[in-house]
Amino acid sequence: METRLQILYLDDEPNDARQVRETLASAGVDCDVLRVETREQFGAAVAQGGFDLILSDIALSSFDGLSALALARQDRPNVPFIFVSGALGEEVAIESLKNGATDYVLKEKLARLAPITRRALREAADQRERTQAEDALRRSHNLLNLTGQMAEVGGWEVDLDTQTLSWTDEVYRVHEVDPATRPSVAEAINFYAPEARPVITAALQAAMDSGTPWDLELPLITATGRPIWVRAQGAAERRAGRVVRLHGVFQDITKRRRAEESLRQRLAELEALHTISAALRVAQTRDEALPILLDETLAALETDAGAIWLYYGDSDELRPAVERGWFQQWGQTPMKPGEGIAGTVLASGHVHHSAEFRSDPLACAMTRAQAPAGWSGACLPIRTDMTTVGVLYVSVPPMRHIAPQQLKLLESLAEMGGAALHRMRLHEETVHHLEQLQALHSIDRVITASMDLRMTLSVLLEHVQTQLRVDATAVLLLNPHSKTLEYASGRGFRTHYAQAVHVRVGEDFAGRAVVERRMVHVTDAATTPADLHLAAMWQREGLAAYFGVPLIAKGQVKGVLEVFHRTPLTPDPLWLDFLETLAGQAAIAIDNAQLFENLQRSNLNLSRAYDATIEGWSRALDLRDKETEGHTQRVTTLTLRLARSMGLSDGALVHVQRGALLHDIGKMGVPDSILLKPGPLSESEWALMRRHPVYAHEMLAPIDYLQPALDIPYCHHEKWDGTGYPRGIRGDQIPMPARIFAVADVWDALRSDRPYRRAWPEAKVLAHIRAQTGQHFDPRVVEAFLAEHGTL
Length: 792
Known about the structure:
Layout: E1 5-10, H1 14-26, E2 31-36, H2 39-48, E3 53-56, H3 65-75, E4 81-85, H4 90-98, E5 103-106, H5 113-146, E6 153-159, E7 164-167, H6 169-175, H7 185-189, H8 197-210, E8 214-221, E9 227-239, E10 242-252, H9 254-282, H10 286-300, E11 305-312, E12 317-324, H11 340-348, E13 352-354, H12 365-370, E14 376-384, E15 387-396, H13 404-449, H14 453-468, E16 472-479, E17 484-491, E18 502-504, H15 508-516, E19 520-522, H16 532-541, E20 545-553, E21 556-565, H17 573-624, H18 631-645, H19 650-661, H20 672-675, H21 683-689, H22 692-700, H23 711-715, H24 736-750, H25 762-771, H26 779-789
Parallel strand pairs: 1-2, 1-3, 3-4, 4-5
Antiparallel strand pairs: 6-7, 6-10, 8-9, 9-10, 11-12, 11-15, 13-14, 14-15, 16-17, 16-21, 17-18, 19-20, 20-21
Helix pairs in contact: 2-3, 5-9, 9-10, 9-13, 10-13, 13-14, 13-17, 14-17, 18-19, 18-24
């Protein structure tokens, strides 16, 4: 820019103004920035004027950007207004554009400010030029109406009695006719263009019939064949009630008409730029923007035939995105860079003029077959950031051509379309990256919330297929014992070939990925015979691309993530990086699941070892007291049945079983002389015997694993009425497992022989248990026991 750009910046953060100035300066924009932060300061600055550009944050502590926009548009409607905000939602952005904002930039992407500023200033200049052109056009009309004498004017008359036409020298000069020729009225009318002849004939007839004068601007072709524009004015002269003469003036207005036509053309071009620019700013997607760009471009050139083709890097080909007129007959046949007109323009980046598409030497066979005869036009590159992303076709019918000024308009529109596509690509990339982050978050949640590897892989492969936009994907797990890769999960396959995979490490493409610990990429079917399984899949599934990524966690290969596509796939580095990221997530999921499975197996083995130890202790106790041998197993079985009938959970039953097996573990602290005494025990001996629950508590309490099973060994001799031992607790103070065990223990003890008594009959034992209800036993347990007794 020749002069320093003057910027008014509404923002309450001083550092932001400095950052804007530095960003623009680094991009070659020389500027002065005046920062204001209140309504009063902003209103005074706008009123004073002198600014080329207004920047504003959307949200401030005492003012807001939308109100500032309304104020600026009221006082300075032609100054570009750009929002620079840290957070600008999509709805607010669209609303701001509708209210007259030129564009918006996020502070985190401030690098976009310089190109947007240049475009905004260019559009403002175009708008000023359009306004000036309109003023010039109005002045031109006024000048002709008020000062027509300044142009050379010729006179003429027709004597109707003699049918003689008389011209002045100026009229002969304009018609480029020799004065000696003296043309007739009919010959004079034939100088007018064919479309103008009926108009002048009707004007002459109206003048003779009703005396109506005429003032017409008409196209005329001189005797040498030069087309010009003339202003013909005339009236009828009457004598004795009849028309005897027609006379008037004749003026060459070709220069004015051409100037007006040039102005109209420039106005149309500027209007097209303004219309397309406004429409593209509001468009949010490529599918919305491209039809707008093409339709408005064709309207500006007053034609109906054109197309936009876009380049797709993943398949390295051009494909039509939107078509109008005879271009719609082309169909969807893709084209490679360098092929045909579109491919040549894409590869070279230069505009191509075609005198006739049908016979153009660059045209492919499809173009020659479909293009109508005589249609000419141009094909222009569409660029974003110096990268050609597509081409714009425009074609005009026979007898027309694209003028240099129109070509400049097309270049501006193609540039504008490229900028819009670039903005939309950035928006799409932002949305896609957000979707990828959400996908990774979803995968993380599944990994942390579930140890079900099948479900985790199913969710992960769903995101692989969706985010990478591929046709099929699978995970192969490495069997460390057989050194083979085996199918674990898949998605998107048409056949069952993927499920039958069984690849040895080092063999085939998946096995190579494991050994080489790197991604393997296959795009050529000719290479697949080396992998018989993939070759069969390639044919049956109709594949065109394969990626195999090793799944590595903590330095160990867990398997391979496979990705398949049925059309050629040439991904960019971001795609490959995200594939590697998803492979890392899959490796973590597999590693976590395997760790959990190993932990479960270890816990199960440890639990079984604990239970075997407990059972060994129980058998050791029975072997010590020959008279009670088998009592522990019987009473444990009965206690579990009774506890289950009373609704104890499966988790509680595990601890009930361990407590029942260890109920007499405390007797290991009782001397054999007391424990095996054949006769009655003395009072002191009973006192020692009653200590065995305390001994059990002292033995088992330090063992965390057995603490939940302490209720029975510690409390099975407590009684419902509080007369039991060792603590004399009563009622619900006694743990439920101990209350259940007490009934089962007495039932089995009384029905078994002891050194000091014989076993009781079953009826007597049942009567005893009923009699002890509410004293020794919990009434609810007794009720459940009696209900269960019928099935014992």
